[in-house]
TrEMBL record:
SUPFAM superfamilies: YbaB-like (SSF82607)
This protein's name: YbaB/EbfC DNA-binding family protein
Lineage: Bacteria, Bacillati, Actinomycetota, Actinomycetes, Pseudonocardiales
Keywords: Coiled coil, DNA-binding
Compositionally biased intervals (Pro residues): 140-149
Location of the region described as Disordered in the Swiss-Prot/TrEMBL record: 94-172
Length: 172
């Protein structure tokens, strides 16, 4: 291979990487996600990193619902949108190579899909774990410390044991 051919090949590789990087940036910027409930009265939008960027509540969303039920529905939609955004981010990495280290890292953070079946009444949905997280161990109450020991009273014959029974103020 001549130096000119090598340089032309190198320039082509650089142009390919630049095109992939531009496509990646464009796809990443478009990776936010929105989810709404069935009647459209609640809508959440999350950024590509999963942070909540918009929350829309119609007046009908709060009518006839307890605060905890409304919060539960908002959180469920937010988790669903966060998963969609994570999938979108993974799709944005495709131009970089489907089997790249970056792609494996990103897909490892996609949360699992939530079940579509309704949760039992009165129980909040469990927090979904990301692939890299360990389940939390149940918290246990710290052990109860033993009761404080009673101070020992000095016995009359214990007096001055440290000094051999003699007075330190006396001259010999």
């Amino acid at each position: 291979m001549t130096p000119e051919e090598w340089l032309a090949n190198f320039d082509a590789k650089i142009a390919d990487v630049q095109a992939k990087a531009a496509e990646f940036q464009e796809n990443l910027e478009a990776s936010s996600a929105s989810e709404a409930n069935q009647d459209g009265s609640i809508r959440v939008t999350v950024a590509p990193n999963g942070s909540l960027t918009d929350l829309h509540l119609a007046d009908s969303a709060v009518q006839g619902k307890s605060g905890s039920k409304l919060a539960e529905e908002i959180l469920k939609l937010a988790r669903k949108a966060q998963r969609s955004a994570a999938v979108n981010v993974a799709e944005a990495f495709k131009p970089m190579g489907a089997d790249s280290e970056a792609m494996h890292m990103v897909t490892g953070y996609i949360p699992p899909e939530e079940p579509e079946e309704p949760e039992p009444a009165g129980q909040p949905p469990e927090r979904q774990l990301f692939a890299h997280e360990e389940p939390e161990q149940p918290r246990q109450a710290p052990p109860t410390p033993p009761p404080p020991a009673r101070p020992r009273r000095p016995r009359p014959d214990d007096e001055d044991d440290d000094f051999g029974g003699g007075s330190i103020l006396r001259r010999d």
